[in-house]
Write a sequence for this structure.
């Protein structure tokens, strides 16, 4: 075979891979699920792990065998008689009463290090191992989420390190429908990355499945879907790119005239557009047709605000003393003893993970209150800009941990029940220097339209002027975008003739 050359050689290449123990994956799942779903997860673990017990609702039962002291026994098993169970509750019993502080949280890192050391053999865990473990814990996303689906595709793409970092930020900026909630320049500014790296990541994101993901508006989302179908340049594509406003009003004669096309062809193009998905990310969302149970209750407490974690749906757990006694007696075979040891470790890990979940939610909620105090005092119009990066730096965790911790979580406030994500929003700086969130700007737009003269409604440019009077400088296209997100029609369709 001429013109071709083959050679065999050996090359050494250093790569980094992330390998997470099943327990850590389970812990991440516990952090992300809502209260009702967490109860289901715990019940499944109770059925699978015989060493776990659920405490009765009325308190700690004194009939169960006691656990061993911290230093007692080869396996931490009880060496006291079974009737020595009275006294203070043990560290592996968990009672999430509303006013209880989580005393054992400080021991979580130590237990985790012991757990990981037991998985890896007799080699002790070093500080570097602990740091690596924490990094792995902070870098995984939920198995069923849109975010993980996209990050898996990103790992297969040929992205430079800065572009991969930008991709992670972009994925975190997607809303439930799959739209980017921040511009590339905002992401570059917040993440401290070059704008070119963010733009490359955006271009790559828009090639991922599902088609249309990563767009900043509905027209762009549908255009990307047509491009994925090989329909770039089609009449449907031209309608979306050039005459989207007429499309929203279904002005077929006007569309035909402006695009120099037959009305029948325009109608077929509109039917083609109607088959596209206006919210490609929603297929990954959980079923929203269910009862919302607040995970956090925020109430006024004098001049301050009190946080109460809703633990009504979280069973209280402990490690069964009976199985510790079985290990302590020394009558079990080696395989039986190893099985119980692993089950006890797994049970402790579950208990610690739930405690860490509750504590993390509480700390994040406290920081939300610190930043959004005006919201709790006055309502939505006082909402301030807030990013996950800001909260993560104060709480001392990675911003992806904040993202997981607030996912599917709700807070009951004096102004109603809000998803914790609601409090995280970009914004603007008014002429007075005060920060104003885009949610507050939307509220202002809605208020202005509600009190307008219906015979002469405010145009988007009029709304820009009204907002400028309030010290907020904003582009007309941004006003139009917010108006559409509020479900409000343009001024020519809001006009009512008397």
């Amino acid at each position: 075979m001429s013109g071709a050359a083959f050679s065999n050689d050996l090359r050494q290449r250093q790569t980094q891979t992330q390998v997470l123990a099943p327990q850590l994956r389970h812990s991440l799942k516990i952090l992300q699920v809502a209260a009702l779903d967490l109860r289901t997860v715990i019940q499944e673990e109770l059925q699978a792990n015989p060493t776990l017990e659920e405490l009765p609702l009325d308190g700690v039962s004194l009939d169960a065998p006691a656990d061993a002291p911290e230093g007692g026994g080869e396996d931490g098993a009880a060496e006291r008689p079974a009737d020595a169970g009275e006294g203070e509750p043990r560290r592996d019993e968990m009672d999430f009463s509303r006013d209880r502080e989580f005393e054992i949280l400080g021991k979580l890192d130590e237990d985790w290090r012991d757990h990981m050391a037991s998985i890896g053999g007799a080699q002790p865990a070093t500080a570097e191992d602990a740091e690596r473990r924490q990094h792995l814990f902070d870098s995984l996303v939920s198995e069923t989420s849109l975010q993980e689906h996209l990050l898996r595709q990103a790992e297969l793409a040929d992205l430079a390190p800065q572009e991969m970092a930008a991709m992670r930020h972009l994925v975190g900026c997607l809303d439930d429908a799959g739209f980017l909630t921040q511009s590339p320049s905002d992401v570059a500014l917040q993440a401290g990355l070059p704008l070119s790296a963010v733009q490359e990541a955006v271009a790559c994101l828009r090639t991922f499945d599902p088609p249309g993901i990563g767009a900043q508006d509905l027209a762009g989302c549908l255009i990307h879907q047509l491009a994925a179908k090989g329909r770039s340049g089609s009449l449907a594509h031209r309608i979306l790119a050039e005459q989207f406003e007429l499309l929203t009003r279904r002005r077929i004669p006007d569309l035909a005239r402006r695009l120099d096309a037959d009305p029948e062809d325009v109608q077929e193009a509109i039917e083609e557009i109607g088959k596209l998905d206006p919210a490609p990310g929603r297929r990954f969302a959980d079923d929203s047709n269910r009862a919302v149970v607040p995970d956090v209750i925020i109430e006024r407490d004098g001049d301050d605000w009190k946080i109460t974690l809703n633990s009504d749906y979280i069973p209280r757990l402990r490690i069964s003393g009976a199985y510790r006694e079985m290990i302590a007696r020394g009558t079990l075979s080696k395989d039986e003893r190893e099985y119980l040891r692993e089950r006890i470790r797994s049970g402790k890990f579950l208990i610690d993970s739930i405690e860490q979940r509750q504590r993390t939610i509480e700390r994040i909620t406290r920081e939300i209150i610190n930043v959004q105090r005006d919201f709790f005092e006055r309502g939505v119009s006082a909402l301030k800009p807030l990013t996950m990066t800001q909260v993560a730096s104060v709480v001392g965790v990675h911003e992806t941990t904040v993202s997981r911790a607030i996912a599917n979580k709700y807070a009951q406030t004096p102004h109603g029940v809000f998803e914790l994500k609601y409090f995280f929003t970009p914004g603007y700086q008014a002429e007075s220097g005060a920060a104003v969130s885009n949610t507050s700007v939307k509220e202002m737009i809605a208020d202005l339209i509600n009190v307008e003269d219906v015979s002469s409604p405010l145009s988007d440019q009029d709304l820009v002027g009204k907002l400028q009077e309030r010290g907020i400088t904003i582009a007309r296209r941004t006003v139009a975008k917010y108006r559409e997100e509020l479900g409000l029609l343009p001024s020519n369709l809001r006009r009512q003739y008397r």
Remarks:
- The beta strands are 52-54, 296-301, 304-309, 317-319, 410-413, 416-419, 427-429, 435-437.
- DSSP finds 22 helices and eight strands in the chain.
- Residues 59-126 have pLDDT under 50 and may be disordered.
- Residues 218-284 form one domain.
